[in-house]
Amino acid sequence: MRRTQVRVALLAMSALVGSVLVATTPAGADTADATVTAGSERSHLEDADDVRLVHVRMTGADMLDKVVAAGFDLEHGLRRVPTGIEGEAVVTAEQVAELEALGVEIIGDDEAFAWSDEADGGLRASGARTAQAVQPASHEATVRVVRADWFTTKGQGFLYVEARTTEGQQSNPVVTMQLENDSGKDTPFGFARTMSRFVDSGQYMFHRNLFKLDTRPSQIRVTSSTGGVTTGFVSDWLEDAPPPLTSNPGYKWDFVDGYRTPQQLYSRAEEIAREYPDIAEIVYLPNKTNGYQRKAQATIGGTGQSAVVVSSAAWGHEGGNDITVEFVERPGANLPLSIEVQGKAIRVLLAKDAAGALASTAAQVAAALESQSQGLVDRAHPYRTNAGTGIVAPTTGPVALTDFLDQKRAGAPEGEVPRGPATIPVLRIGKHRDGRNPGVLIQAQDHAREWVPATTSLEAAERLVHNYKSDWDTKKIVDNTDVFFILSNNPDGANYSFYNFASQRRNLTNHCPDENADPGRRNSWGVDLNRNYRVGSGHDGYAGGSTNCVSDTYQGPAKLSEPESKNIIWLVENYRNIKFMMSVHSNGGQLFWQPGAYIADGRITTPRPPLGDEAFYWQSASRILSQVKAHRQTVVTPENVGGSSDVLYSSAGNVREDLYHTYGIYAFGWEVGGSVYNPATGNWQGGSFQPPWVGTPDLVSGHSETMEYANGIMEMFRVAADWGKDKKKPTSQLVPGGGTYSGPVDVRFETSEPATIYYTTDGSRPTLESPRYEATEFREPGQVFHVTETTTFRWFSVDAAGNVEKGYDPTNDGKRDNYRSATITVTGR
Ligand SMILES: [Zn+2]
């Protein structure tokens, strides 16, 4: 029965908003070239010894992209502030000047943005008054509350609000928003504050505020300078008493007592598999890493036109470190350039001209070394961008080549590091490891210097195996999930971080051309593994991945160029029951999902998850973060939760985008550590990549972070177990429901649990190809339909586990039409 004669007059309000935004040219349109080409002379981290940490402020994502593309180490700990993005940079003194030349502001610790307790929200209220004065009196403005969240931490209450105006993109004048709150049910609004306008890549996002409050408000009121006004109820962010991970007093935890090198992590994983063979095993990933190994090198003759950079053919530990190179001046005149090789000793006999003067240029010596060193030298070239036109001087004796890996940094742990490619073991824990249970992939330490994610993941693994026999709640997890732990996904880089250069982020692979291949660049090589994936890739124009081989977000020469990222794809393709993934990073106090990348021009994100997935992500995040909070009151604030490109920045080619969009895996990204409220100072305190293990247990401590975030990982297992057992069909309704209305009516859908609705209004049977019920805008609830004429909605809902409302089969037209239906009858005008 098709009632095509029904003329539908629907107005999805979000569509209106969308057109307002799209019609405005983005100011950030020049950021598409954020992935600048390699080549210009840059002085990235030359040596671990002379770097320091500075606080920086950038005007926005476009500046951040340029700075990162220029090779600066700015990842993690970044946060958005009303005037742009603040963060920390690990830099040399010389680089401070380079940063400033790029427009970056170097700020003191005490100049960092802090949400103000002042009534004007920290911004000048005079700006708001000016804007109000020019407001067109007859203008129809719309304001919506996106979120209004209340939480407490360490005895202090906070209110966090996001609100949107449909005129947020307008720039002259900028629309300002005032936020008021009451002091509990039936109390008046007051305490007006100016909200911060949040703009990213030229696009208005929303207005927001976070501030301390001693009394929980019941409602807020938001007023725009163009006359829009709305109120909203305040929700609780995180549960203060979530269902405990266990009620068993004998529950065992606190297994990890210090940072762990990859060797220690892997041998413990193998030990666990041997000790608990009924519930654990090792899956070895097929692609070996490129190895904790380097070619032996030397830069001979300074850094000018006479300098020659020499790299061995063999890896340092396989003979390269035994090679010496000597530039020799012989007596006489009219002598040709030649090379003598004795064993591992290379002697370059420099040419002389007719007058007896030295006559070999650096370019000539390099060419001779490459072709005549009997295979000892793989690569020889002038220094950086030099043409090598200078005459080479003799050395005072043989110069030894070195891979620099024997040069241990101060404080490096005891022990030898195995050289060469590594095989990464996956610790698989589950009673039924046959694909019947939902798989959860915990991937730690994609970024080498992030040491806490590895200990956090190991702690969670230990809790599973030690409590399986004695704790009912743990047994439920192990019996009903199939967990895959990659305790360190970047062992080469992690070893470099432990033993050589603590700030190493990427893997160790040197993809640099000659101009960046000298050993002075050795701390700047490697691929950012979390930029090396295929969806939303920098290779396809998404922002936040660099083409510069010495940038800390270098995306690699091609998608999946690195063995470590190939392995992740292999794993999820071979274990198709993996439905959940957590990529564990540090440090920032954030929990992310999709979208995580956008094309800067127009801020075009990867596709947003449907409303059901988005709601499921939020519900899971709340469960996970409530367990984190239960340990020592650490609150990951709602401003730091959501699509990573919405709340932080675009990270092209990250693993989460690939796993979610290619395989339908719920893929979270976690920034553990950092952002702990310090009641003594009244401020939020940031963390670090390698906080002292014991440190200050209530604030900065690797041990405390490990324990609290391991709680969150345990809860993620429970989320997966519940998902696997979820056979309950969702229900949904149209609000207000079908019936007769005397005029136009606003309707929306509600669901009993996170679920996506597919609907029609043209009389046809709803299918998975029908329009999807969407959010009004991102981070908001479902859209509102303004129904002006009699309309019949037909729909069904699907929950996050795939259960369809009433068991309706949307794929087969021959089956029962047991979808939902409601008619809104509109009479008169
Ligand atoms: Zn990271």
From TrEMBL:
Where does the UniProt annotation place the signal sequence?
Answer: 1-29
Cofactor entry: Zn(2+)
Keyword Signal (UniProt): yes
List residues of the Peptidase M14 domain. Answer: 381-713
| Highest taxon, organism lineage | Bacteria
SUPFAM superfamilies in the cross-refs: Zn-dependent exopeptidases
Quote the catalytic residue positions. Answer: E671
Q: Which UniProt keywords apply?
A: Hydrolase, Metalloprotease, Protease, Signal, Zinc
- Report the sequence similarity comment from the record: Belongs to the peptidase M14 family.
Classification via PANTHER family: PROTEASE FAMILY M14 CARBOXYPEPTIDASE A,B, SLL0236 PROTEIN
User: What name goes with this protein?
Assistant: M14 family metallopeptidase
